[in-house]
Amino acid sequence: MFREYLQLNKILDLQKWKRLQDSLASVTKLAILTVDYKGNPVTSHSSCQSFCNSVRKDPELLPYCQKCDSRGGLEAVRLNEPYIYLCHFNIIDIAIPITIDGKYIGAVMAGQVKLSDSDKSRGLEQIVVSQDPHMHETKLEMLRSSYDQLPVMTYEEIVTISNMLSLLCNYIVEEALDKNLLIEMFSQSSGSDQNGKLNLSAILPGYSIRNIESIKREMTNAIADAYLSSSPEEREITNPVLQPALDYIHTHKSEQVTLKQAAELCHLSPSYFSRLFAKETSENFTVYLARLKIKWAKKLLEATDMPISQISDELGFNESGYFIKTFKKYEDITPAVYRKYMQKQ
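RE: above sequence
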């Protein structure tokens, strides 16, 4: 069953995914296409540029486009990160790999733009070179007007957008996979009726399929909290006046407790709580809380296979990008690199 979930069309509602893809193409000004692990399109193009549309309709040029898509996807998988390259017409394209637990399941192909800072293109690979330069030059002149209308971006803009698309796409796929696996687990449990349909009322009275995501969050929160609670931990604060705030932080790991909330728990004013806390720990409350959450994150990265986006949620970060930035601030490496290194030990 898990092998089946490694197919994009089994994980995602492709109609909804296409609407998201259309919106992303509109906002980023890039043409976007999603392909499976074999390189076959699972969506139609979003915002395909007129020039590229004409090129892909040309039977002599289409094979070059297909080779670019194929080689770009393979290179992105090899690097395990977005791969920016030049197509056979020296147009910028991007291959963004979609992976689950290190397994390649597809890619988002984006691009069809030109560089405004053309000097940056010297470091980019032209992934497919024409075997008939004269033919390419002739066809380019025939399509010159549409070629001149291609969007223009700086290299920095392209890198920023490609990283954003990578984080977003992999996050959505991981969340969809978690949801599908949870539903499958329930479907095969004693909560299924005689027709094999999910009967949540038999498993969790009062719940419905509409709040299946709430059930998933409750289950994963319990797993994370149980693991962290079972780990021996030395608390750095011994002042009994501050203890109510500390106890609340440790029992509500998925919340971002504010200074005001912590002070109220201890029946102190925020200013006095802040001074007392700094005297006890030699750092301010915000820094202490962030460092503590990173400490918990390291434990989860070392001993579980939880996706980084899920660990971010478990520890109350607003979004995984902010979690990654905070983790790198304290540990000098990203969560993914930390996990990879620690699990090799």
